[in-house]
Structures are given as structure tokens and as C-alpha cells.
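INPUT
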Amino acid sequence: MPAFPKKWLWVVLVVAFGWPLLAPVFPDLVSNYRLFLVSTMIIAAIAVLGLNLLTGFNGQISLGHGAFYAVGAYTAAILMDKLNVPYYATLPAAAVVCFVVGYLFGQPALKLEGHYLALATFALALAVPQILKYKWLEDLTGGVQGIVLMKPEVPFNLPLNEDQWLYYYCLVTMVVLFWAANNMLNSRSGRAMMAIRDHYMAADTMGINTARYKTVTFGISAAYTGIAGALSASAIAFVAPDSFNIFLSIKFLIGLVVGGVGSLVGSVVGGIFYVLVDNSAQAISTFIKNDLGLQFDLSAYTIFGLLLIILMYLMPQGIVGGVYLLFRRLRRS
Amino acid sequence: MKTNRRTFIGTASAAAMFPGAAAFGQKKYDDGASDTEIKIGNTNPYSGPASSYGAIGKTIDTYWKVVNAAGGINGRKITFISLDDGYSPPKTVEVVRQLVEQDKIFALFQSLGTPCNTAIHKYMNQKKVPQLYVATGASKWGNPKEFPWTMGFQPDYHTEGVIYGKHALATVKDAKIAVLMQNDDFGRDYYDGFKLGLGKEASRIVKTVTYEVTDPTVDSQVIQLKDSGANVFFNICAPKAAAQAIRKAADIAWKPHQYVVNVSASVAAVMKPAGYENAQGVITAAYLKDATDHQWDNDDEMKAWRAWMDKNMPSANKADANHIYGYAVSTLMHETLKRCGNELTRANLMKQASSIQKLRVPLLLPGIFVNTSPTDFYPIQAVQLQRFKGETWDLFGEVMHAESS
Amino acid sequence: MEQFLEQIASGLANGAIYACVALALVMIYVSTDHLNFAQGEMAMFSTYISWQLMNWGLNFWVAFVLAVLVSFVLGVIIERAILRPLHNAPVLSVVVVFIGLLAICNSVAGAIWSYLIKEYPSPFPKSTFGFAGVIGPHQLGVVLVTLVVLALLFLFFRYTPLGLAMRAAAQNPQMARLVGVRVDWMLALGWGLAAAIGAVAGIMVAHIVYLDPNMMSGILLYAFAAALVGGIGNPGGAVVGGFIVGVLENMVAYVGNMIEKTTGVYIIGNGEKLTVALIIVIFVLTVKPAGLFGRVVVKRV
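OUTPUT
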């Protein structure tokens, strides 16, 4: 897949950073709610990027990235709640914890391929909410009740409100993480990662330490998703086992595939889709019911399913891949 | 339409006369209310594993449509915006912020789920937007000192648990108690209440086992309970597992005194699947009438509700207790809004909601009323015990009040 | 000791459920090389169809046969209409389509039949017969039906030309096409067969777990584990895998209980039994990557 043109990248960044400053001019366009919504998209994009590093660039499938997201969120929540650690310091902590968990999980995963790895990761996603409720951890995790947190406070008396600050906090984190991911992928290690994905045997023969690359990639991938989890703990100000059910992992996977497997831009698109798909499914469902007057109850869940199938039908390579193909076709004709 | 409205709202509006009359003065509005409309927000799980609760949201939606067709409340139409949160707390935060900040709702009504409501608890109180009659049985919603904008609706699980505990102690000699509970806050609330009800005798609980919502059956758990030699079985399960547990206990010839929580007291969804012969003698506490219980077949409120369902939700399954629940809570909200008169401010809404005296809401059990005060944010706190006999519930004893202390 | 036997028996009874669904998963895998995440929901939908037919007054077995036939046709239609156009798409895109299917089956069933749980009759005679009070006539019946389906599948794939053609189409589509096998129709047939087996599984399971749109959501994971532990391409292995998973899970809870009873310390209980069982399954898979009964496929590079 082609790289994103540099000049457009700058335009996007300027818009992303400048947009909230328009609040006094267009109060409706730049509402606190919209900023919050975009913040959740950013968080989802980071989580999807984490999954993409593993699945898209290294060829290891995971149906359980919600587990790392949960570990990151709980690491942050426990640090803030029990030890009064400031929220910004929880990000590196979550990254380290998740890297270790991911790296360790990567060891048995080496022996598993395809469907077997899918099962193992799926099991992980199911196990984590149960472990959070485990009797001996209850004091730490709050058990079934979860932990209620404070929202991040605006530092240095900056003239921003909570939501604006949260937005910048998430945005800066995302830019740093994407920049790091991009550098890594364009380095020797990144090429090794992709070589393993494209042709395991050849990569092995060429002297790439495949086992080490695979486990480290697992760790890095988990760390990325864990950071997203830690961000979400701050943004939502509440963690509970119910927030991390198996659907979370499945929705990350959907975000990954719909955005674009093996594409950094695809991760951003996937993050946006992750948030918007529910809202649009609901809007379509209400529209059909109220404005078209259809008698049969076409629920939002049905529309969600239909949307997925239609999208894959139209763009089996994901949105980024689909748009790219479209452009190429247009240019050729 | 007209006859329906009269039957249902007639009784309620008579009671409303007095406080309502005073409020019909100057018009005052907060966000979400105007001369022509009142915007009410709601969250419900229409997708995902908890989607069975979506029936509540649909009933409420239909209720407001019917009210609007009959002229609305004090001449104002209700705009009801119900959004899907899939029972995921982060999603609840997102859609509730949309409701409050983007759609500018007047109040949030019947948002569903304990974790979901916990996630928005602080936010709603910071924004000073009513989070009214939430659809969860946790006991934390009646805390007007810290959270003056949040109020519950149904008898809380904790209180109900206390009642079972006391009853078991009083009626079973040498009670040895086994508990099966769903491993979440719903199970935990009941369990804590139950232990409180047992008081000093809490050590009579000889075995507690949990199950997960994803467990296909609870057979293994019931076998463990039987093995403990208990003679009392407290069944804190959602309908499916509750039915499985009752049937399983009978299958392995374990015959304890059984208590099942109100959440799983439906005749059609629990007792019948469990097998009537297996469910004889099971005790539960109730506050609503059960549409699948034949003792209410000739009850006026029940007949009126059936007619309403036939007319307005013809394709819905009337055996689903969620429709009864959604209907009853809507009539309470209807009454509360009506009492606000022309002073549609959020503060007044909370004031009206917290000054309801002995209000009869249709489909509540006879003798149970809605009572609130500025210090009592638990609208319904009375239940009556009932025992399963033949194919219906048999009410016994007094209506038990556990008004908050 | 009594509890031990009861737990084993209950594990076997649950195992029969997992085995049944695992068989359907294996079926799709063998004939199309995909793991169908919507398998459980499709089976649930078929079960509702049979329930509806019985509600209209049909006899159990008539409804059973009709539901299986309808499911077969629906399976073929789904393959032709939804998956055919995607035959060149990446595997993950197909997975997303399966998730879409899952959502549609689940919500449409809920819209038509409501989310209320329904009891589902057992076709087997009621009798006092039983082992440890757990394996009753229905559980035995489920095992029996599962074994019959397994035997039929074995005969079909081993001895009929159509079965051979289907296997060929899945294993080496190009070669199969060259020798005159209509590969695309073989895939559709595979889907039909898997949907039909799913219907059988759903109908057998529904009496035990009750009928509701979410009845399969918990079971699917167990079936998934069962299919893999037995070796994904091996129907017999899937059935054995089902029993292994069912018993293993109960044993974890049992052992946890015993530890608590003797030492008074809670280590594992019902909350952790699935987790621990899965850890064991995964451990087994790392030692025997192709499953207990799977053949190790030697890849040519």
C-alpha cells in the first residue's frame, strides 16, 4: 500500500491541532461533545494501530486485543486510584506492563498458527474480565464494581477546558505513537517483521531471528493497545469488567479490517469507524423506522451486520485499500 | 386511544390535582423543554449480549408516542431519544454526552444497567441534569446528599436480599444455606443484602458458588451446592440460569427450601421452562404483577395493559416482563412531568420526583405505592413475598416496607 | 466421591453439546477452509425455525427434518449470495463478514421471536433411567445423535463420489477444477451441510440450555476449543474434543473445591474454571500443534 503523501500529512496535522481553537468562532461546530467524540476515535485508532502492528505487519492474528486494552486501563486506574499517580505518568506504566504481558503471551503463541492463535487470543480476551473479578485481586481492581476515577485536570492554568485538554492529550500521544510506529516499520526491524509475515520460511533462512521478532512484536503491539486502554481510563473516568467484554476485541478487529490491514492510515480510519459504526447504524435504523415507516423492526444491530457485509463486499481490502484502488482506476481512465 | 388513556391516566391524574394546580403558574424552562415539547433521553442495550432488555426501551418509546397522539403532557409533546449503548459503560458515556450536550435533553430517564449508570453518575450530577428512575436495582442510586440528580425506581436488590435472609432464618429450622450467584454487581448486591438479613447467623451460608453469563449451563455449580448438604437454596441468577438451576436441583433429587430473586420470577420465562413440578414451593418477592400469572387475568389494570399492548405493540410478546416494567415506569415519569406543570426546570423535576406521596402506579401489586421525599430517593421499597403453587404465584404475608432509614 | 461422579457425568453431558456444535464448525472448515463465527447463531436460527414449525402443530421429527432441510438451503444461499463474491478477499475480511452474519442472525431472531427464553421439548422418551442423576435420556440421545451424524459424515466423505469431490475442492481447488469438479458448487454444498449439522446441534442443545437468541454465544467458544483440541480437520476428533473440554471444565471447578475444602484456601473456583480449562487446552496445543487427533501437514515451500 502506498505511503500517505507528506504534504497532506501536514495539512491534516494543522487541522487536527488548530480545529479546537475555532471554538469561540463556531461554538456549535467545536462543541465539547465533538472534542470528546474525536478523542474516543483517537483512542480507538491507537488500539487498532496496536493490533495492526501484530496482525497487519507481522501476520499474527489476534481476536483478543481487548485484553491488553483492559490491562492498560486497569494499570492506569489502579495507579491513579491506589497510589495517586498523576494520569500522564500512567501511560508509560501501562505500556511497560502490557509489553511484558504481551511478550510473555507471545511465547506460547509462537507455537500456534492461524486458527489456533485465534483461539488462544480469544481465550485471553474472555479470561481477562474474569481475572479482574478474581477473589484475591478484588481489593485492587474493585471486583465487579470497578473503579471510579477523576478526569484529567488541565495543567499549568492553560486556558483550556477539560475536554479540550483531553483532546490534545490524546492527540499528542497518538502523533508520537504513529511517528514511532512509522519509524520502526521503515527500519531494518520493520522490514524483518514484514518479511516474517510475507514469507516465514524465507525470513528464517535469511537469518532473521523469527522467534524473537514475533514475541517482541507481540509485546509492542500489546503496549500500544495498552496505552490506548490507559487513555480511555482517563477519558471515561471509570473502569469495570463490563467495559472489556469480548465484543471489544471483535470491534478492534473490525476496525482493523474495515480501515485497512497493514496500513497506518488504515488504523486511523479504523478508529473512526469503530466509533461511528454504532452511531450510524442507530441513525439508519431510526430513519427506516420513523421516516420510511417500515413495519418490521430493523434494529441497529441488524443494520450493523448489514453495514459490515456491504462494506466488505464493496471494499474487501478495507476503506483505505478501496479508496486507493478507486483513485488508481480514476487516474487510469 | 381515548378510552385507554382514560383508564390508565385517570387514576393517576386525580392524585395529581393538588400539587399540579399550584405549579400551573408562570412558565419557566430549562434546556430541552419549551411550550411545545419536552426532550427526554434514554440509553438501552439494543445490541450485544444484553439486548433482551431493549424491550424496555421499545415499550417506553411506544408509551410516549401514544401520549403524544393523545395531546401530550400539559399540551407539550414528548420527544424521546433512546440510544443504544450495548451495555458497555464507555459507550454509555459517549451517547449520554451526545444526549446532554448535543441534543440538549431535559432529563435522562431509565438509563439501563448498573455499570452503565455508574459511568455517568458523576457527570450527570456535575451537569445537574436529572438521571431519573434508572433501570437498575443497585442500592447506590438513592443518595440525595451526594448525588441529588439521580434517583432509582425499583426496590433495590440489597433490600430484597435482606428480606430473603430474614425470612429464611425465621422459617427454616437449622438452616444451612447454599447460594448460586451471577458473578457481577447484580449478584453481589443481592448477596450482601442477604448476608445483612442473616445478621449474626451469616455463617449459616455453607456454600457460595458463582457462574458467568457465558456459562452454557449451571449444572456443575448446582451439583457442588447439593454436595454441601444445604437445606436452603438462594438462587441469584438471571432468568435462563435460574430456570436451569431449579430444574437441575430437581433432577439430582436435591430438595431444599428455594428462594429465587425477583429478576427471575417470571412464570413464562423461568417457572415454566424449569418445569412447574420442579418449581413448587419456590419463594420470591414481587412488586409488579406478572402478565403470565393467571391470577391477574381478570385484573382491571392487567386487562387495560393487555388492550394497550394489543393496540400499540401488537407484535410484541406479552409474556416478556420487560413490557410491564417499561409501562409502569413510564406512567410514573408521565405523572412526574405532569406535576411539573409549566415550570419545566430540572430543579423542579427533581423536586416533584422527590415529593411523591402514596402514588398508585398501574401494575404494581395491590398495597404497593410510590413514595419519595427529599431524603428518600427510593420510589418503590415495598415488596410482598409469594410462593409458587400449581402454575401461579401465591402471595402471602404482609406487604413489607423497607423505607430507607 | 458421589460429587466426583456427578461432575464427570455432567461434564460428559455438556461435552455432548460442545461436540455437536464443534462438528458443524469442522464441517465448514473441511469444506471451505474457514472457521465460521456465525455458526452458532445460524444453528440458533434453525432451531427457531423448527420451534415455529412445531408451534404450527407439526410433530417433532417432521419439524426436525424440515428445519434441517431449510437450513441446508439457507446455508447454500448464504454461500452463493454473500461469500461467493468474496472468494478472493483476504481471510480477515471474510471473518468480518461472519461477524456481520452473526449480528444479523441474532437480531433478526430477536425481532421475530423476542428475547424471552422458551422451553424446547425433548424428543426422547421420559424415563427414570439415568446415571448419577445427570445423564438422563436426553443427554444420551444427544450423544447418540451426534455419533450418528459423525458416522454419516464419515461414510459420506469416504465412500461417495460427491464427498470425495468436496474434499478435493477444499484441499486443492485448482487441481479439483482440472479433473472436472465444480468447485464453487462444492463450497456451497459444504455450507449447506454445515448449516444442516448446525440445525441438528441447535435442536439437540435447545432442550438443555433453553431456546433464546443468545443461546449459542457461550457454547461457541467451547465448541471452538473442542474442534481445535481434536484437530480442526477431524470430525471424530471434534467430538472427542467436546467431551474433553466438558469434563475438563468441571474437573477444574471440582479440584478447586476440594482444595478449598481441605486447605480452606480459595484458589480456583467457578469464576475461573473456563479460564483454567482454556489455559490447559492452549498448553496442549502448544505441545501438539495440530490437535490431539490432527495430522501434521508438511508444507512445501
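end of record. The mean pLDDT of chain A is 87.
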